[in-house]
TrEMBL record:
This is Nicotinate phosphoribosyltransferase. Gene3D superfamilies: Aldolase class I (3.20.20.70), nicotinate phosphoribosyltransferase (3.20.140.10). Pfam families: NAPRTase, NAPRTase_C, NAPRTase_N. Residues 11-135 form the Nicotinate phosphoribosyltransferase N-terminal domain. Its EC number is 6.3.4.21. It catalyses: 5-phospho-alpha-D-ribose 1-diphosphate + nicotinate + ATP + H2O = nicotinate beta-D-ribonucleotide + ADP + phosphate + diphosphate. It is an enzyme of class 6 (ligase). Residues 364-473 form the Nicotinate phosphoribosyltransferase C-terminal domain. It comes from Ethanoligenens harbinense (strain DSM 18485 / JCM 12961 / CGMCC 1.5033 / YUAN-3). GO terms for cellular component: cytosol. InterPro entries: Aldolase_TIM, N/Namide_PRibTrfase, NAPRTase_C, NAPRTase_N, Nic_PRibTrfase-Fam, Nic_PRibTrfase_pncB, Nicotinate_pribotase-like_C. The lineage of its organism: Bacteria, Bacillati, Bacillota, Clostridia, Eubacteriales. GO terms for molecular function: nicotinamide phosphoribosyltransferase activity; nicotinate phosphoribosyltransferase activity.
Amino acid sequence: MSRYVDANLTMLTDFYELTMANGYFLERFADRVAYFDMFFRHIPEDGGFAIMAGVEQVIDYLQNLSFDEDDIAYLRGKGIFDDRFLDYLRSFRFCCDVWAVPEGTPIFPGEPILTVRGPVAQAQFVETMILLTVNHQSLIATKANRIVRAAQGRPVMEFGSRRAQGGDGAIFGARAAVIGGCAGTACTIADRQFGIPAMGTMAHSWVQMFDTELDAFRAYARIYPQNCVLLVDTYNVLKSGVPNAIRVFREELLPRGFRPAGIRIDSGDITYLSRKARKLLDDAGFADCGIVASNSLDEYIIRDILVQGANVDSFGVGERLITSRSEPVFGGVYKLAAVEQDGRIVPKIKISENVEKITTPGFKQVWRLYERESGKAIADVITLADETIGGGQPYELFDPEHTWKRKTITDFTARPLLTPVFRAGECVYQSPSVKEIAAYCRAQIDTLWEEVLRFENPHRYYVDLSRPLWTLKQHMMEQMQ
Ligand SMILES: Nc1ncnc2c1ncn2[C@@H]1O[C@H](COP(=O)(O)OP(=O)(O)OP(=O)(O)O)[C@@H](O)[C@H]1O
Ligand SMILES: O=P(O)(O)OC[C@H]1O[C@H](OP(=O)(O)OP(=O)(O)O)[C@H](O)[C@@H]1O
Ligand SMILES: O=C(O)c1cccnc1
């Protein structure tokens, strides 16, 4: 089970999906085969890449689609749905094909990251949940990864449940955070469900509950000698918190053969306090005692305090991660790309004044091309689904907007990113564990050039169209003029 409540989320859909489905049904259109693509247009915070996440929960949702009698009665009560349509919903069985880019893969604007093919009434209907699931988790995985990269190898713990936007925000946010590189989470249920390590320290209330800070530290050290991290900022970090921690480490841990795990600083100037605390700990013979920092951190503050010379070994990050506070929207959209007519795929396009918003028509595949020698990713190429790239053949890349910019590459490998997930409604994909996804994500990010990784003005990674696809799109745009 990958949902925290065993609820059927079939009715979690925008109402227009239902009115359209009813309409398709009445127009005898419901079984016409359509292709929908999910893609996004903008990388949060103008970053160089985003991270795909949420596929496992999309699978879970699609496998559990069904309307029960209460749903049907509710819809009947609306007074706008045809009885025959309601009967059709009663026997609804998801029978579409779905392809998705595997979770943990770096993704780029404009490329399909998930495609659904099937009867339009169904393929249209699943839009809302697919978008909300992938938008949420990709947003948080992308944000978490920025924070993790800012920490430069120091572990980052996800502390955000209490400030998440609801239960799903906390649980799937924790899942996505670990995909993006967090070492663990404070979210216990996420550990139970996804096997991602739950960890934590203590709250200020623990310290306040005792007559003195010293008593609070002593009690904690006695109960948890093997993993003793003491919160040192309830009263005064340097005058009482750290000295009391040192005393307790000496009196409670050393005699029992334990070493301290750490102290946590949760307020004030982290750079100043961590440096002073480090010196006190070192002078007391606890050079191995880690310093955890928390308090409304994000990638910018972490980067700043490290540049300032903070002495921090790990970070706890909550609200700004779990809500992706600096940019809380991952604007993935779901657009019709083609229909089938008389056994042929007929591409569809959506025209806009804004060139970026013109959709790319047809049933497509996305190929990632890697330089053979360095293993680095060169570009992604969106092709029609029946095209193949690789097999030792040179390939000409060209910029879809400035077509005179061309380059022929020879020594490369190519892999298709869109992977079959459902065939005719049957799941054909085994989701990896979150740990495996996180490891894959790390390895994939290593294939990106430094220039794409940086926070400020990263290079735009190439997402090109194949010649047949570019020609098709051009032709359709001209026809629509
Ligand atoms: N050296 C630093 N450079 C930049 N930002 C820092 C530094 N130290 C802490 N911060 C950040 O400054 C922000 C504000 O901290 P603020 O002054 O509100 O304090 P506080 O110490 O939490 O106050 P309180 O004692 O009320 O909890 C936090 O987001 C914190 O992460
Ligand atoms: O600041 P964030 O990035 O969201 O990290 C999580 C915060 O949650 C806790 O504070 P809170 O005041 O809720 O509880 P506490 O009494 O345990 O400090 C913790 O001490 C952190 O400050
Ligand atoms: O374990 C912690 O230190 C923790 C957990 C949640 C929020 N803040 C801190």
